[in-house]
Amino acid sequence: MSTRLSIFPLPGVILFPGLQLPLHIFEPRYRALVGDALVRDRRIAMIQPQRPVEGAPLYSIGCVGRIGEIEAMDDGRYNLVLEGQARFRIIRELDVTTAFRQVEAELIEEDEDAVLSAVERAGFEREARRFADNQGYSVDWASVERLDDETLINGVAQIAPFDPASKQALLEAPDLPARCELLIQLMYFYGRRDGDDDRVTLQ
């Protein structure tokens, strides 16, 4: 069954079901989007544009979130936390008169029992430690080890410093093991150093 979604196209930003995304809303059209969502169903659909230009075509898959915490400022801006609910696939973009774009989309059903094998989990944690060390990140590994597979993989995919196309590929991965494998590959490639300097290279 299709549903109508108001979208917030933001390059380099993805959201997964069950995770949270803090947003600062300042552009007039997206302040209008938030205002509209608050009087309807509190839903905002996050999706990446294929290019960082006005009106660019959208990728086909995004994630709809529900506004949780929200702070409305005197000048009309908002600070809010979006709580991921479900991935969606765009059917078509709608011709609308609102300042913000809207789409007709279908929600994607997830496998709620998805888990990694012990080998997959160990391989991921090993590459994640190497990547964190290379990037100079400080990580509480004891807390990481306590996370369930889905929260760990999706959480890293959501915040990892990859390019928009790579992040989109992670969002579109068909299941958790596939996303884990792709994440390992991306951490490996992004973590490689170019000669003796600190530039990250995909070569």
Query: What Rg is obtained from the alpha carbons, in whole angstroms?
Result: 18 Å
List the total number of helices: 6
Low-pLDDT regions: 194-203
Distance between the termini: 43 Å
Could you characterize what this model shows?
There is one protein chain. The chain is α+β, with helices and mostly antiparallel strands. It is about 35% helix and about 25% strand. It contains six helices and six strands; from the N terminus they run E-E-H-E-E-E-E-H-H-H-H-H. It has helices spanning about 30-40, 120-135, 140-145, 150-160, 165-170, 175-190; strands spanning about 1-10, 20-25, 45, 60-70, 80-95, 100-105. A five-stranded mixed barrel has the order 1-3-4-5-6. Strand 5 (about 80-95) and strand 6 (about 100-105) form a beta hairpin. It is globular. The N and C termini lie far apart (about 45 Å).
Could you provide a short overview of the structure?
The chain is α+β, with helices and mostly antiparallel strands and about 200 residues long.
Attribute tags:
5-stranded mixed β-barrel; 203 residues; 6 helices; 35% helix; alpha+beta
Can you lay out the helices and strands and say which pair or pack?
Layout: E1 2-9, E2 20-25, H1 28-39, E3 43-47, E4 61-72, E5 78-93, E6 102-107, H2 118-135, H3 141-146, H4 149-159, H5 164-172, H6 176-190
Parallel strand pairs: 1-3
Antiparallel strand pairs: 1-6, 2-5, 3-4, 4-5, 5-6
Helix pairs in contact: 2-6, 4-6, 5-6
